[in-house]
Design a protein that fits this description.
The protein is of the alpha/beta class. Helices cover 39% and strands 20% of the residues. The protein has helices at 18-30, 104-120, 136-141, 168-172, 178-182, 195-202, 211-218, 224-232, 269-287, 309-322, 335-347, 362-371, 387-393, 404-409, 426-441, 443-455, 460-474, and strands spanning 2-6, 35-41, 54-63, 67-77, 80-86, 127-131, 152-157, 165-167, 192-194, 205-208, 237-239, 296-303, 325-332, 354-357, 374-377, 397-401, 417-419. The strands form 3 sheets. A 9-stranded mixed beta sheet has the order 3-4-5-2-1-6-7-10-11, sandwiched between helices. Strands 14-13-12-15-16-17 form a 6-stranded parallel beta sheet, with helices on both faces. β4 and β5 form a beta hairpin.
């Protein structure tokens, strides 16, 4: 089967969050038995240099604000084809210092127009799998009435809060037909279109990244026209739980760890916890923390409203009052949050038990996973979440809000701790206190939580099998 994965992120090349990880992991799992090609836009200032074999390179035309030229360069990478599309005559759109900017609907619609032109020139494509609203226009462009044939289109919602509202005139720049454009337009305001809305109507099947989040989406009334769109397609909509790549996230082989360990040590809990402790010592030395403070809780997250930054701040107070260590590693995406957390970071530089790191440093993050006893994920909503899956893989017990994919993967008393209420901090503090108390006073119970998490299948094989089932059902 020829499968194309279209996205604006793919680890390890271009990544801002979990989207890039999922696109890479799913593609790699599918490529074992199928011909998988990943389409990415070229970001001149961001794309890393790499020496993979070039399979093909050619120039082609696409329509967006007139006739434009693009170059498709295809590489062989880990059994897959990675095709990077450079918008030669509109290169300034992607010459940015960050993946996402204020002009994303324009930039990514131009990429979608180029991707559609590229796909239409290929000999045979069975499935085009589009990831999130960024490539929503691609669904409509691949369903144009004048096309002699078109592949089956799968669209995955990674975060329903981001939808791609834009001007209808902007989408018209792709020369999409009036019929196609109508799928994107809002009835209440035809001058406004929504990339997500059009993708819902123009795709053969729609998925999201966990079963619980699928229900959250069906119960979301924040925009009644988007709600009508998803309800009209609910018979071809489901949640498929994300997974992680066990080869990438593996404490037995991770070079960033001071000491490696794995599930084979579950037969010798004392040895396992000694190795976790050695990683903790290495991290404490690196960050200047005092070894007197234990357990170690971490937060590894984008610091945005969705992720519960107010709970992250509350955790700092709880750690101070209860004498355990806390490391927060994350990136802020707005100036006010950046200001607040920078002030906190500066005020805690001499703290013996708390550190805030406002940067994503992959080796450091991996060491944190290996050193931490617990990982806190206080999200207001969470489509799936990958950090809890990685944490469990590294023997780090998840403390989560029971929502979306977190509810699907973390069960209180089985492999972690949960809280529900977000109107105050009482439920959250109760969860933290329960986790710290269990660690300190009930080592046998704590080991059972760690064991359950480390033995949990990553879900990557299952995820790929579910998607293959969807693909096959459409062919």
């Amino acid at each position: 089967m020829k499968i194309i994965q279209a996205s604006v992120e793919c680890a390890p090349f271009i990544k801002a969050g979990g989207l890039g990880d999922v696109v890479y992991s799913l593609s790699k799992a599918l490529s074992i038995h199928h011909d998988v090609e990943i389409l990415l836009p070229f970001y001149p200032l961001l794309f890393p240099a790499f020496s993979s074999q070039v399979l093909d390179e050619h120039v082609f035309a696409y329509n967006f604000l007139g006739r434009q030229n693009a170059t498709a360069t295809s590489y062989r990478y880990e059994g897959m084809t990675l095709t990077v599309i450079t918008l030669d005559s509109q290169l300034e759109l992607f010459s940015t210092s960050t993946i996402y900017t204020e002009d994303d609907t324009l930039r990514f619609s131009a990429f979608s127009a180029a991707a559609a032109a590229y796909i239409q020139k290929l000999d045979k494509v069975d499935v085009v799998h589009m990831h999130d609203w960024h490539v929503g226009l691609l669904a409509g462009l691949l369903k144009e009435p004048h096309l002699p044939s078109y592949p089956k289109r799968i669209f995955t919602i990674h975060n329903f809060s981001y939808r791609g509202y834009c001007s209808t005139q902007l989408l018209g720049a792709s020369e999409i037909s009036d019929f196609g454009l109508s799928n994107y337009q809002l009835f209440r305001d035809p001058s406004t279109s929504v990339l997500l809305k059009g993708a819902l109507y123009c795709s053969d099947y729609i998925t999201t990244v966990s079963p619980s989040y699928a229900q959250d989406i069906l119960n979301d009334y924040s925009d009644y026209e988007i709600h009508d769109a998803i309800m009209s397609r609910r018979h071809v909509f489901c949640g498929i739980l994300n997974g992680i790549d066990e080869n990438i996230w593996n404490p037995e082989t991770d070079p960033a760890l001071a000491v490696r360990y794995g599930t084979h040590l579950l037969k010798s809990p004392d040895v396992l916890f000694t190795k976790k402790e050695e990683n903790k010592i290495a991290l404490y030395e690196k960050l200047g923390l005092s070894l007197e403070y234990s357990p170690l809780m971490c937060v590894i997250s984008r610091i945005v409203e969705q992720k519960g930054p107010e709970f992250m701040k509350a955790a700092i107070l709880h750690a101070m009052e209860n004498s355990y260590a806390l490391v927060i590693a994350g990136t802020c995406y707005d100036q006010e949050t950046q200001r607040q957390f920078t002030n906190l970071q500066e005020s805690l530089t001499t703290s013996p038990n708390i550190r805030i790191i406002l940067d994503y440093n992959d080796p450091l993050v991996r060491l944190i996973y290996g050193a931490a006893d617990m990982i806190c994920i206080p999200s207001h909503f969470e489509p799936c979440g990958l950090t809890q899956l990685i944490g469990m893989r590294y023997g780090t017990v998840p403390l989560v809000r029971s929502t979306g994919g977190l509810a699907d993967t973390v069960a209180a008393g089985v492999n972690g701790f949960t809280f529900s209420h977000t109107d105050n901090f009482n439920d959250f503090f109760h969860m933290l206190s329960q986790a710290v108390s269990t660690y300190r006073h009930e080592p046998d119970v704590w080991f059972q939580l760690v064991e359950e998490g480390m033995l949990r299948p990553s879900g990557l094989t299952t995820m790929a099998a579910h998607y293959l089932g969807v693909y096959n059902s459409l062919l």
